[in-house]
Amino acid sequence: MNEGGAIVLFSGGQDSTTCLAWTLDQFERVETVGFDYGQRHRVELDVRPVVLEAIRKDFPQWAGKLGFDHVIDLSVLGQVSETSLTRDVEIAMQENGLPNTFVPGRNLLFMTFAAVVAYRRGAKHIVTGVCETDFSGYPDCRDDTMKAMQLAINLGMDSRFVVHTPLMWIDKAETWRLSHRLGGRTLVDLIREESHTCYQGERTVHDWGRGCGLCPACDLRAQGYLRFVADPHLQSQASI
C-alpha cells in the first residue's frame, strides 16, 4: 500500500470514477478535487457528490480512506475559451485537426491546481484519468504532457509529487474491465447509473450509462461498453 496520500482529479465521469477506485485500492488516504469552469455539461458537478456517497456506502473497504472533496472555481477558463464545451455551439472538427471540444490549457490548469491542493494537504501523489489510447486528440492528455507537468510542478514547488495516469495506455473497453476488477458489478453499475461523461449534459438512460448517445464522449463510452460485455470471460462468469 502506497503512503503519502493522493489527490484524484474527479469530474464525476467514467474515467475519473475508475481512477478514484484505482487510487482507493492503492493508497490509505485519498481526497478528490473537481473544477467548475463554466462547462456546458456542468451536470457532472451535480453527480460528483452522488458518486462519492455511493462509494462510501457500497465499498466499506474504501470508505475510511476517502477524505475531503475540493471544488475549485475556474470560471475564468470558461470566460477566455471559445469551445463547444464552454459555448453553446455545435460540436465539430476544426481546421487544426482538433475537435472544438478541446479546451486549451484545461488539463494544464487542472494539474497545477491539483498540485496546489496536494501541497496544502500533504499529499505526494496526483491521479488523473487522461488517456492516449481512446481520446479525442487532446494534446494535454498525452503522456509527454503529463511527464512535463510533473517535472514543472516539482521544480516550481520544490516538491516530489508523482503523477499517476492509470488509464493512459488502455482503451474504453479495458477501462470498463478495470472498474470491474476493482469493484465488481457494483462499481460497474455505479458508473453506468450515476457517472456523467456526455458533452451535451443529457441524462437519457442507455445500457452503457446516461447521455445523449450521439456526442463523441457518449460514442467512446458506448462502444467500449459493448466490447466489454462481449468479453467471453465475463460471459462465462455470468458477472455482467
Ordered list of secondary-structure elements with their pairings:
Layout: E1 6-9, H1 14-26, E2 30-36, H2 43-58, H3 60-63, E3 66-73, H4 75-80, H5 106-121, E4 125-127, H6 143-157, E5 162-164, H7 172-194, E6 205-206, E7 209-210, H8 216-229, H9 232-237
Parallel strand pairs: 1-2, 1-4, 2-3, 4-5
Antiparallel strand pairs: 6-7
Helix pairs in contact: 1-7, 2-7, 7-8
Short structural description:
Keywords: ATP-binding, Ligase, Metal-binding, Nucleotide-binding, Queuosine biosynthesis, Zinc. This protein is an alpha/beta fold and 240 residues long.
Binned strand content: 5-15%
Q: Class in CATH?
A: Alpha Beta
Radius of gyration of CA atoms, rounded to a whole number: 17 Å
The CATH superfamily is known as: HUPs
What's the total count of β strands?
A: 7
CATH architecture identity: 3-Layer(aba) Sandwich
Specify the number of helices: 9
Give the strand line-up of the largest sheet. Answer: 3-2-1-4-5
> Mean of residue pLDDT?
87
User: What sort of overall outline do the alpha carbons produce when their principal axes are compared?
Assistant: globular
CATH topology: Rossmann fold
**Residues in helices, as a percent range:** 40-55%
Distance between the termini: 29 Å
